[in-house]
Amino acid sequence: MMDLGKKGTLYVVATPLGNLKDITLRALEVLKGSDLVAAEDTRRTQKLLSAFDLHSPLISFNENNKHRKIPHLIARLGQGQQISLVTDGGTPCISDPGRELVLETRRAQIPVVPIPGPSALTCALSASGLPADSFVFLGFLPRRKSRRRKILQEMEGQKRTVIFYEAPHRIGDLLEEIRAVLGEREIVLTRELTKVHEEILAGPISGLIHQLVNREPKGEYTLLLSPAEK
Description:
Layout (H helix, E strand, L loop, with lengths): L8 E5 L11 H9 L2 E4 L2 H10 L6 E3 L5 H13 L3 E5 L12 H9 L4 E4 L4 H7 L8 E6 L4 H10 L6 E6 L4 H12 L3 E6 L7 E6 H8 L8 E5 L5
Helix pairs in contact: 3-4, 7-8
């Protein structure tokens, strides 16, 4: 087993979005040597660990139980244990659970170490062809229509690429709202990146709305909005 040292450490470990071959050697090493893996969905993470013959114990850590689990995890870190934080896929804390745990770990003066790897955000941006030297990431927009509309209005003159995440059953409504608030804009839609049904769509927003109208959306979407014309 890898010697991770005597002092407790929280490892923020990026895991594959879908294709297990995207796991890094360092991520495998850290997961193997962890005393505990805090996972958004233990069933999904168990499949990942089993695929690489890893046997580290799992504990559930998600939006529903995070406030109850954080004191327990901090206590174990304080006892010198090595804990890995993972999400269902991609990099933890990027529109996924984990930020509060990282914050409280730092407040306890316990080391936090990032283990870089896949991210739906950078994966989509790299394949979009849109400006990537500066961008705005808004994650999932609020469900309340008035709040979503206010945020979209603030993006009207944005000169940088704007990136959102959206659930499949809401992507059509979001596209309609963007068109209503911002008018006809070039966008890129990605879903199921690195998976069997990976798809990247690009073009005017009206064209993409038309493409999606007669299909059942599947998989979480990343939407990239082109910068406003200068």
